[in-house]
Amino acid sequence: MDVEFLISAFKESQYPESDRPEIAFAGKSNVGKSSLINTLVNRKKLARTSSTPGRTQSINFFRFGQTLYLVDLPGYGFARVPARVKESWREMVETYLIRRPTLKAVVVILDIRRDPASGDIDLIHWLRAYNIHPIIVLTKADKLSRQQVRKRAGLIAGELAGISPEAPVVFSAKTRQGKDEIWERVREAAGLMIVD
Fold it and tell me: Fewest CB within 10 angstroms: 10, 74, 102, 182, which?
């Protein structure tokens, strides 16, 4: 499937035309968001990966075929970003989430090795309050044993049970575990049939 970068938007007037469903990707800095996007679209460097937290500072739009936009939101929760920058990111992301009529779901990305932080919980609550479907993905599964993955996934699912309508998807960019299930949920949320 053809995929291309469209634009890095800092304000609403820069968004591409709302002519197809959109799936956004959100997560704390360094949870593997860019690696997840790259794995989903079978490209190594479409979304830039970085060891520096807080690298994504704009809303990045990608066109996936003729049917879908994938949207990379700035990472949140990075302590070394100045407060004024954090506030501008928050406002930019909230504006996008509230005012984008074609947004069908947000893939909320969590590191399976860490407990969900208050920012993660707040984001999921916020999405639910605005009737935006959250798709929870637990990344970096290859860093744990199978037994640890089952245990951590169960603990996190239990913690999110009251606010997430479905169990999290366990994912690894290294092994591609969970890729097909994420696409199934994306297709369902977007109301599309996408051939990978």
Answer: 10
